[in-house]
Amino acid sequence: MKILVVDDETDVQTLFEQRFRREVRSGEMQLAFCYSGEQAVDYLTAHHSEIVLILSDINMPGMSGFELLRHIRTNYPTPPPTVLMVTAYGDDQSRQQAISLGANDLLSKPLDFQALKEKLKSVV
Amino acid sequence: MSIDSFLIAFLLIRHLRKFAQNTGLAPFWDRTLLRAQYAALALLVVDVIIDEDHVFQWAWHVFLLGLLWFVYPRPEFRPTRNIVSAVFPLVLVNIVVDFIELVAPAFDKKYNNYFDMAQLLAFGWVIAAWVSTQRQQKALEKERQKRLEEEERNRLIAAQNTQLESMVAERTAELVRQKEELEETLTELRATQAQLIQQEKMASLGELTAGIAHEIQNPLNFVNNFAEVSVELCQELNDELAKVDLSDSDRDYVGGIISDLVQNQQKIAHHGKRADSIVKGMLQHSRAGSGRKEPTDLNSLADEYLRLAYHGLRAKDKNFNASLVADLNENVGKVDVLPQDMGRVLLNLFTNAFYAVQQKQKRNPDAQYQPTVTVSTNRCDEDVEIRVRDNGVGIPDSVRSKIFQPFFTTKPTGEGTGLGLSLAFDIITKGHGGTMEVETEEGKGTEFIIRIPV
């Protein structure tokens, strides 16, 4: 299962790689990282068929997570990848917007990795 | 016939009568003088009819002398003395001349011219006295008139003065009233200004707090996450270490280092979590006022949180005891509020109240002191009022203006974040459009008053 993580914080890569060390090592999971919405769009043109799940931050400079989500839902309808949005503001408004744009779920920061792992298992 | 004597008598009486009338002497004098006048007329008539000159001239002398005698010593007629005394010489001269004529006619004939001259002089004297008196009288009259006018003028001025005085007093009173009104308004304005400044400060501090919290949250998440993942890594390292061949002493040493590392990471995670809970508290500021208002029974909310706060403290300090007084007015009913936020405010106020009474008890353990926390509710017109009162340590004046500021706390480090009251303030003012005030006296107690418009 290949997962694309989109976040403007580069340290997210280190964190995810360490958090999912066992899963990556066993080949259960592959991780790819992009540091902006634009980069993610580029990455998807080349690799969209591999990606099963996208985990994207909402607040990013330039292209926001919502714009990326809209792009994904318009350009890659089949098979639709699972998209989980991540936000620091766990308010109702963001949730409504994310769901209406076609996100599968909205997670709030700080991420609970234990819960995330459970969620990933259920998605796949 | 003595027409001259008659004229003198007549004119003198007339003059006296006039005087009596003008100066307002008793009417008795007027009547008496009138009789004297009639008597003079009667004497004249008799004189004319009988025509016995040498007899009647003596009658006239007696009449005149009697008149003078009668008037002269009277103090009532003192002002007429000028004329009366001027008549005396004439009468005397006439008497002397007539006497000489009677006793020594030859002598009289010889010096007739001198006698006539003397009579004329005496007569002239009377006229002169008359004229001068008349003139004096006129001058006096004028003086009197002037004095009257002056008095009139003075009275007028005095009246005007009184009027002016009262106008000035009225105006002064009005000015004083205006001044007092203005002063009152100024005081009110100052209070409002201070309040506005305070609110503005609170609002900007609240925003700042929320802003800072957001900025801190991300790096803090990383700290926490990396600390947690490092603990996991150490565990993995331990597992891997078990597979490697090592001497026991080396294994112990490395194991010791790893367990220290784990401990350190746990400490980082623990303190990171502490910071995280502060940040969460700060973030509440930005959320104060969001959410949905529901009709809430404030009385039961207050009662519930009063008990909650009390038992929360009792759980930490078994020796602590306080009386709880809930004076809840039924007229409050249900009010549209954010129930969770209101609960947070009440919980915070109650916790503070219990803390204050607990502190007071700790300071004087022996004193007769019954810690009491009171909550009262009431609806007045368009507001619902909630008062939370304690008889604890009170708030010193020096910190009173700071208690609603974020991060201001008097509690020891680690016991309070200093966000409770600032958040409560935000919830009441921003979230509910209400007001939050504090009344306190050091050593006596504190009362927080919340008013929420209905």
Give the strand tally of chain A: 5
| Protein chains sharing the most extensive interface | A-B, 13 and 17 residues
Number of strands of chain B: 7
Strand content of chain A: 15-25%
Mean pLDDT of chain B: 86
CATH superfamily of the largest domain in chain B, called what? Histidine kinase-like ATPase, C-terminal domain
Question: What is the CATH architecture annotation of chain A?
Answer: 3-Layer(aba) Sandwich
Q: Any low-confidence stretches of chain A, pLDDT <50, length ≥5?
A: none
CATH class of chain A: Alpha Beta
Computed Rg of chain B: 60 Å
Q: How many separate helices of chain B?
A: 11
Organism (chain B): Fibrisoma montanum
Protein name (chain B): histidine kinase
Catalytic activity (chain B): ATP + protein L-histidine = ADP + protein N-phospho-L-histidine
GO molecular function, one term (chain B): phosphorelay sensor kinase activity
Could you explain the architecture of this structure?
- The complex is a heterodimer of chains A (124) and B (454).
- Chain A is of the alpha/beta class and 124 residues long.
- In chain A, helix 4 links the parallel strand 3 and strand 4 (82-87).
- Chain A has a single domain (2-123), classed as Response regulator (Rossmann fold).
- Chain A has a five-stranded parallel beta sheet, with helices on both faces.
- The radius of gyration of chain A is 13 Å and the shape is globular.
- In chain A, 45% of the residues lie in helices and 22% in strands.
- Chain B is of the alpha+beta class.
- Chain B folds into three domains: 3-156, no CATH class; 199-287; 294-453, Heat Shock Protein 90 (2-Layer Sandwich).
- Chain B has a five-stranded mixed beta sheet with strand order 2-4-5-7-6, with helices on one face. Chain B has a two-stranded antiparallel sheet with strand order 1-3.
- The mean pLDDT of chain B is 86.
- Chain A: Pfam families: Response_reg.
- Chain A: The modification 4-aspartylphosphate is found at residue 57.
- Chain A: It comes from Fibrisoma montanum.
- Chain A: This is Response regulator.
- Chain A: InterPro entries: Bact_response_regulator, CheY-like_superfamily, Sig_transdc_resp-reg_receiver.
